[in-house]
Amino acid sequence: MSPHSSKEAVDDPLWKSVLEQTFIHFLTFFFPEADKIFDLSKKFVYLDKELQSMFPPKPHNKGVRYVDKLVRVPLRGGGEKYVLIHIEAQSAKGKGGLAHRMFEYYSRIVSKHKVPVTAIVILADNDVKYHPRIYEQEFLGTRLRYEFNSYKILGQDEAVLRSNPNPFAVVVLTALMAIRHNGAGDSQLLDIKHDLYDQMMQRKMDRKERRAIYDFLAYYVRFEKTEMIRKFLRLFVFKRKERDRFHLSLKNKLKKNKEGVPLWEPENIYWIKQKEKV
């Protein structure tokens, strides 16, 4: 996977899209008790523009690029109770200052909204030692300590991600493969993409979520030669047609099962139910 000067500019919209389109899965991935804390049946409100107005970008886009999202998430229990979740995704190591910036975000958000705020940083860089998670200040007996959720993709266990049924695990796995196989040739990358595609198809999600994750795995791991992405897309279309033919044959066989007993693997039954969504 060769470096590209525009890598972060390409990564930004991919992270923004996949975070928004798979937000429920994101919540349950990072907070296992999310369905007990948040009312996931209600709409989320994305306050990204408000966040940008509070922290305008630097002139000429100088400095390390990062993705910031601010989401209003309703709480269980009825009423208008909600919390704010601040998410930052950074695909390259900065020159320091991340912890301080996270504290500034927290301070301004709390000051304006006066509701609980939690923050999550997704670090997708290739420096295993870079893992900011605390901001501290101390002077003449006055001390401040701010801790935030910091998730280092390079430190994740690949086997655990593969066994995790949450669709967002595929997003993390994709970013992990991009870091680990930086410098790999196009032929190896094609195999990696197909493996990631298979990982995605094994998980239950709706069409919008699948589209967002597919776009992420298709373009986050980039080929050296642009024609390789067309080859991957052609193979993707072929796989989809083959799967559809298999589903049709399997569905017809199931109809002939007079006893109504499923004689097939659970994942095959799942694919029949999901056919219209994919």
Distance between the termini: 29 Å
Taken as a percent bin, the fraction of beta residues is 15-25%
Biggest sheet, open or closed, and with what strands and sense?
Answer: 5 strands, mixed
Q: What is the number of helices?
A: 11
SSE order, as H and E? HHHEHEEHEEEEHHHHHH
The helical percent reads: 40-55%
Shape: globular
**Strand sequence of the main sheet, in spatial order?**
1-2-3-4-7
Query: Which class of secondary structure composition applies to the elements?
Result: alpha/beta
Q: What is the number of E strands?
A: 7
Low-confidence stretches: 1-6, 246-250, 257-278
List keywords for this structure.
278 residues; 49% helix; globular; single chain; 11 helices; Transposase (putative) YhgA-like domain-containing protein
Written description of the protein model:
- The chain has 278 residues and is of the alpha/beta class.
- It has a domain at 1-155.
- The chain is 49% helix and 15% strand.
- It is built from eleven helices and seven strands.
- It has helices at 7-21, 23-30, 34-37, 48-54, 98-113, 158-163, 168-180, 186-201, 207-220, 227-255, 266-274, and strands spanning 45-46, 67-74, 82-90, 117-123, 134-139, 142-147, 149-152.
- The strands form two sheets. The chain has a five-stranded mixed sheet with strand order 1-2-3-4-7, with helices on both faces. The chain has a two-stranded antiparallel sheet with strand order 5-6.
- Strand 2 (67-74) and strand 3 form a beta hairpin.
- The longest helix has 29 residues, at 227-255.
- It comes from Arcticibacter tournemirensis.
- This is Transposase (putative) YhgA-like domain-containing protein.
